[in-house]
Amino acid sequence: MFWTFVDATPALGGSVQIDGKRGHHLARVLRVRPGEHGVESRGGWIQAQFNFTPRWQTNLSYGLDAQNATNLRVGDRDKNQTYMANLMYKFSPNVTFAWEYRRFLTRFRNQPAANENGDHLNMAVGYVF
């Protein structure tokens, strides 16, 4: 969740009270001066799940977060992309094994040397009580 509101103070950042708890991880607040606006952004994700058998399944996803480059300074992050694929095996009603691969691509405005790509591979074991 993102909110933008007009505030006379020059501060950037903040927090929001949600259900009586500080909501740093639930919301981001951007304070801007009157006449200014936040960074315009577009993005989202898509995910598909395929169940091969009652024990085997896979998930595929793609996510994108891209800012309007004209709202950014040189060197600001302007695009993040991620691809993910996993394979899950339900060993028993209580135990599931999962293997996942994720690819990250990050781009910075007018700074090609700062652009980064990363790969992440992990295995997890889930236990249901």
What is the strand tally? 9
Structure classification: mainly beta
- Work out the helicity level: under 10%
Mean pLDDT: 79
Provide the number of structural domains: 2
What letter string, H or E per element, gives the SSE order? EEEEEEEEE
Number of helices: 0
Strand neighbour order, sheet with most strands? 5-6-7-8-9
Strand content: over 45%
Overall geometry comes to elongated
Q: What would you report as the Rg, rounded to the nearest angstrom?
A: 20 Å
Spans with pLDDT under 50 lasting ≥5 residues?
1-28
Taking the sheet with the most strands, its summary is:
5 strands, antiparallel
C-alpha termini separation? 32 Å
Question: What can be said about this structure in brief?
Answer:
With 129 residues, the protein is mainly beta.
Question: Would you mind describing this structure in some detail?
Answer:
With 129 residues, this protein is mainly β. The protein folds into two domains: 1-38, no CATH class; 40-129. It has no helices and nine strands. The strands form three sheets. Strands 5-6-7-8-9 form a five-stranded antiparallel beta sheet, with no helix packed on it. A two-stranded parallel ribbon has the order 1-4. A hairpin with a 2-residue loop joins β2 and β3 (21-22). Mean pLDDT is 79; it is low at 1-28.
Observed structural traits:
mainly beta, single chain, 5-stranded antiparallel beta sheet, elongated, 129 residues, 2 domains
Question: What is the topology?
Answer:
Layout: E1 2-6, E2 17-18, E3 21-22, E4 28-32, E5 41-51, E6 56-67, E7 77-90, E8 95-108, E9 116-127
Parallel strand pairs: 1-4
Antiparallel strand pairs: 2-3, 5-6, 6-7, 7-8, 8-9
